[in-house]
Amino acid sequence: MDITSSRSIPDVPTRETAFERPNYLNAEYGWKSWLFTLDHKRIAILYLFSVTAFFALGGLFAGLIRLELLTPEGDLFGPDTYNRVFTMHGIMMVFFFLIPAIPAVLGNFLIPLMVGAKDLAMPRLNLASWYVFNIGGIFTLWSIVNGGVDTGWTFYTPFSTTYSNTYVVATALGIFINGFSTIFTALNFIVTIHRMRAPGLSWFRLPLFIWSMYATSLVIMLGTPVIAITILLVAAERLLHLGIFDPRLGGDPVLFEHMFWFYSHPAVYIMILPAMGVISELVAAFSRKTIFGYRVVAFASVAIAVLGFLVWGHHLFVAGQSAYAGTIFSVLSMLVAVPSAVKVFNWTATLYEGSVSWQTPMLYALGFIGLFTIGGLTGVMLATLGIDVHVHDTYFIVAHFHYVMVGGTIMAYLGGLHYWWPKMTGRLYPTFPSKLSALLVFVGFNLTFFPQFILGYMGMPRRYWSYPPEFQVLNVLSTAGATVLGVGYLLPILYFAWSLKFGEKSGDNPWGAVGLEWDTPSPPPTENFYVTPVVTHPPYTYNREEVHNRLTQEANFG
Amino acid sequence: MASTPLVDRHEHGHGHRHPAHQFETMEQQKESSTLGMWLFLVTEIMFFGGLFTAYVIYRNMYPDAFAVASSSLNVPLGAFNTAVLIGSSLTMALAIWAAQVNRRGLIVLFLGLTMLLGLTFLGVKAIEYHDKFVEHHVPGPTFNFEPEHIKPQALREIESRDPQFQKHTEIFFSLYFIMTGIHATHMIIGILILGVLAVFAKRGKFDPEYFNPLEMTGLYWHFVDIVWIFLFPLLYLLGAHLHR
Question: How many structural domains are present in chain A?
């Protein structure tokens, strides 16, 4: 290799590299080198900042909700403001945090590393997706500055198209634009996973994180365009007074609900599938074992992606859907629980007889398994028609999806960040505060949302600014929990920032983990690998005997 | 060396093309962009699919209103536009052929023709929109639909089945304007891309070894064409039998 070319292994120290190996962080300096970068690792960092900002904003709205619900009366704000606050909380968290968080930050950073590629297949599209994401966010922020939206994140018609007096169109446009960024990212991932794998990296040698990101990308590609057209129809109907969802003109508002949930239920899997991928990595790494039933876990991701498209009708059990359709959607919804449960069992079986170590990422992963199980099982309860009719639109629903979204996705996101932080920055964060944050998040989360199961079961409806006094004790507990949760989320921001400057150098592989991303320096060089890696064995090869057995198996069964 | 695509270009002095930095070979680059384009078209299918679903549901709910409203559209103009678009798909394919046989002038010519046919389509569409506007067939506060062109016998039958059919025609026109409007937006984007490609072609950017952007744009253009092939019968041909 020509040592004067930019890609050779640089052992001659220059001004920048006198003390450190060249990596993607010190390759270039200045704001332009970040804002015009085509490096997937830098774009991941850009996304990290954007996503954190939107998370903070969504969290602020959550705080306001919990503050208002501290007392039965509406003493912080009235119904109109309350409607706007919970709407903005939902929109910020769903569209600008939960959906992009793991794919755009961890996926962007890790997919090329895990498949042994120099970058994603379309680096320009990747950068464009970050800009588009922020433009969508700014549109939505603009609507907040002007007074927000009060329709709920679901934009149900005809309220959103005819009656609401708030900035529905601006917010809808923001979400429409944001959809492009999600699609760009997903398209990039699918092409990269298909076409950019290193020599020897067959499909069944891919890490499970890649499998789950692939399944997620499929859902994004097939679902997002449908919400795009739906939201465009809402905006058109509102602006031009068309009658597509307007019952006065013979339009059908329930059609909107069908079209909305055709995307928005699969969107739940867009949020949880990447989280499952992260957990598979963490559980294997911190049990020092091959994941139990690798192929089954891989196919479970695809099964969830496919089945996820067939269950949207369970959001319409009380919306005038026929009992026949309701029954079918009920059964199909229970079916999704099967591959999800398969994953939970396989993670648990991986722990069995593993050398489990209690590092911070593992604490988050174990928290995920417990909380996701509760969220998933209550999901099966809700798929049952009889129960759903009883608890529909109560806090039971709110608690259920927060167990999946917050207890699942955010736990996994934080676990993943803690696991790959040394990879991304080359620094270690302090142990004690990070373990404390995992504990605070777990305790705070349960304290916030478990009381809401009880509240919902007792009949407290969601989306109300006030409630009967007998619900106060549980609401106070929930608000107290939210405070603990808030502290738990604040801590990582502080010690991650601290670690950038003062953190101990991590070395290339602080966890002793296996996987292509750990075969290159931390932080990785701009081109990821000095030499294109050649893969000769299956993933999660923590045990040599096992490697031998699996290779024999591969040879026998392909 | 296959793993170092950024090696100095002067080492290969005979116009040999290099893939972008993230790829190992030109072939890998081409396969990637082709797969990416097809995936993009999948999202487009889902996007239009939402609209077609809405169309199917409402046509099923109000078959008479849809037939009556459809009969007010201008079938000859719609048919002419269908022919224009199919012709533009031919010139698009010919532009790619011209690149394959390395005739730069012909690439520019065929791209220009494709743009011209696209603009013709949009021009005709504008005339149709104008007619609808004048007739108060645009949904909204001024919407007014008088089915004067329908056979009286057929009209009586329709009225007996759906007394409110006049009101329900507004849904048809809402869908008509949204579907054709979004289709026209795709055409405008396509024409702009073709313009950029024509400039590139003039500068000699394409040759038999590298004409990927032409091929990808071709896929997009044909897709937009196919959407119209579905729109034309669904919107224009439902009510032709109702005319006096």
Answer: 1
Contact B57/A255 with Cβ under 8 angstroms?
Answer: yes
Q: From CA B183, how far away is CA B97, in angstroms rounded?
A: 26
B113-167: pLDDT as tens digits: 999 999 999 999 999 999 999 999 999 888 998 888 888 888 889 889 988 888 8
- Nearest chain B Cα distance for residue A545, angstroms: 33
Residue B230 lies in a domain: yes
At position A495, the amino acid (one-letter code) is: Y
Is B46 within 8 Å of A118 when comparing Cβ atoms?
no
Residue A23 in domain: no
- Give the count of domains, chain B: 1
Instruction: Evaluate whether residue B46 is within a structural domain.
Output: yes
Instruction: Using a CB–CB cutoff of 8 Å, tell me whether B164 touches chain A.
Output: yes
The pLDDT score that the predictor gives to residue A550 is: 65
* Of B4, B39, B49, Cβ closest to residue A7: B4
Beta bridge partners of A505: A427
Torsions phi, psi for B51 (to 5 deg): -65, -45
A252 → chain B, closest CA residue: B58
Contact B185, B227 (CB under 8 A): no
Task: Count interface pairs A-B at CB distance under 8 A.
Answer: 131
CATH number of the domain that residue A425 is part of: 1.20.210.10
| B7 vs A: CB within 8 A | yes
- pLDDT over threshold 60, residue A4: no
Residue A17 belongs to some domain of the structure:
no
List CB contacts (< 8 A) between A240 and chain B: 139-140
- Which CATH number do you get for residue B144? 1.20.120.80
Measured on CA atoms in the order B177, B178, B180, B186, is the torsion positive or negative? positive
Residue B182: its chain A contacts at CB < 8 A? 232
How is B154-184 classified by DSSP, letter by letter? HHHHHHHH-TTHHHHHHHHHHHHHHHHHHHH
What does the pLDDT look like over A208-253, one tens digit per residue?
Answer: 999 999 999 999 999 999 999 999 999 999 998 888 998 888 899 9
Lowest mean per-residue pLDDT among A6-10, A256-260, A425-429: A6-10
- Asked, as a colleague might, if the bond just before B76 is cis with ω within 30 of 0, I would say no
Report ipTM (2 d.p.): 0.90
Question: Inter-chain contact B46–A236, Cβ cutoff 8 Å?
Answer: no
Range of the domain at B33: 27-242
**Listed range (A368-377, A532-541, B45-54) with the worst mean pLDDT:** A532-541
Report if residue B9 sits inside a domain: no
> Does residue B4 fall inside a structural domain?
no
- Looking at residue A547, what is its pLDDT? 65
> CA-to-CA distance for B25 and B19, rounded, in angstroms?
6
Is residue A78's pLDDT more than 60? yes
Identify all chain A residues contacting B41, using CB atoms and an 8 Å cutoff.
Answer: none
Nearest to A123 among B22, B43, B170 (CB): B22
Q: What is the domain range of residue A176?
A: 33-557
A interface mutation test: which of B174, B180, B186 has the most A CBs within 10 A? B174
Q: Do A244 and B175 touch (CB under 8 A)?
A: yes
Residues 194-223 of B with CB under 8 A from A: none
Task: Kindly list the residues from chain B whose CB atom is less than 8 angstroms away from the CB atom of residue A194.
Answer: 35
| Any domain includes A122 | yes
